[in-house]
Amino acid sequence: MPATISDSTHPGAEAWVELLRTLADPIRLRTLRLLEHQVHHGLSVGELAAVLKLPQSTVSRHLKTLTDAGLAAVRRDGTSMFYRLSEAATHNSIRQLRGLSKQYLDHDPAARTDAQRLSHILRQRDQDPAHFFGKAAPEWDQIRAQWFGDTFHLEAMLALLSPAWTVADLGTGTGAMLPLLSPHVARVIGVDPTPAMLKAAQARVRQHRLENVDLQRGAIEDLPLPTATVDVALLTLVLHHIAEPLIGLREARRVLKPGGILLIVDLQPHDVELFRTKTHHRWMGFNRPQLEAWLADADFAHTRWHALPSRTARSKDEGIPVPDLFAMRAQTRNAG
C-alpha cells in the first residue's frame, strides 16, 4: 500500500517520495490549485471536470490519487461528493511544495484558463440559489437547527404582538413565558397562587432584567386584576389543574378588554393516570365541544381549536406516552 503524508509536518522518506510522485503530474497540480480556492464548501467532480475540460472519470481518478495521498479531503452532500484541500496539505513542508509549483503554474496558459473558468462557475453558483438549496434540501431543517436552534422562528413570531398590549400569563408558574413575552409588549402580568412558583418566577425576572413584568399572587378563579385591563390572557397547561374551569374562564373574560384574546394551551383527552397521581391533574384533558360550551357560557366568541402536532415523547422514568396538546383561541365581544 503506498505511503501517505501523515499529520506530521515532516513526512518520512518513503512518504515524501510517494508525495513527489503524486505531485509529478500537471493535472493533479492544477486540481490542487483549484481546491485551494474552495477550502470550506469544496468543488464537485462535475465542477472540476468543467474547469479542467476533462472527462469526469479522468478527474475522479486523479482525485482518488490525491485523496489516497492525504492531499485532498472529501465530504458527501446528498448524492454529490465535494473535494477540498486537506488539513495535512496545509502543513509547512507540503505548503512549500505547493508554493513552488504555484510559481510555475502562474505562467502556465492552461492553469490561467482554469482560474478564469473557476471564477465563472463560482459566479453561476452564487447567482443560482437553487444550486445551494437543491443540494441542501434533504438536510436543511437539521442545518438550520444546528445554526439557529429549534425554536428561533417561533420566538420571532412573538414580534407580531402589539407593543401596546398588556398580556396576563395566568398560572405563570416559574415564569418560563415571561422572557419571551416581555420584549414585545408594553406590560406582562404573571399570576400564580403558589409562593414557591412566584419566587422562581421573580428570580427569572431579575436574571433577565424584565422591567415591564409584574408578578402577583392569586388564584385563576379569583384573579387580582381589575376588570377590562388586559389585551391578551394566556392559560398554558393550567386549566387541567383547576377544579372549576368555567369559573377560571369567566375570570379571564372579566379582566380582558373588549375584543381581548384568550389563548389556551392544554391536553387533549387521555387516560394516562400518571398525570393525575403524580402531577395532580384534576382533568384528564379536554375535548373541543366541552371547551367550546364553557367558552360560550363565559361569554367568549370566535373560538378556534387547533390540535398541535403529535409527538412521540415519553416520560423518562416509566415510559408513559405524553398526551397530545391543543391550542384554543377565543375573543371577547367588542363593546356595543
List the helices and strands and how they pair.
Blueprint lengths: L12 H11 L2 H10 L7 E2 H8 L3 H13 L3 E6 L2 E6 L6 H14 L3 H19 L1 H8 L3 H9 L3 H6 L8 E5 L7 H4 L5 E6 L2 H14 L4 E5 L12 E7 L8 H11 E12 L6 H4 L10 H10 L2 E8 L17 E8 L4
Parallel strand pairs: 4-5, 4-7, 5-6, 7-8
Antiparallel strand pairs: 1-3, 2-3, 8-10, 9-10
Helix pairs in contact: 2-4, 2-5, 3-4, 3-6
Describe the protein.
The protein is of the alpha/beta class and 336 residues long. It has two domains: 13-147, Arc Repressor Mutant, subunit A (Orthogonal Bundle); 148-332, Rossmann fold (3-Layer(aba) Sandwich). It is 42% helix and 19% strand. The chain contains 14 helices and ten strands. Strands 6-5-4-7-8-10-9 form a seven-stranded mixed sheet, with helices on both faces. Strand 7 (230-236), helix 12 and strand 8 form a beta-alpha-beta unit. The mean pLDDT is 83.
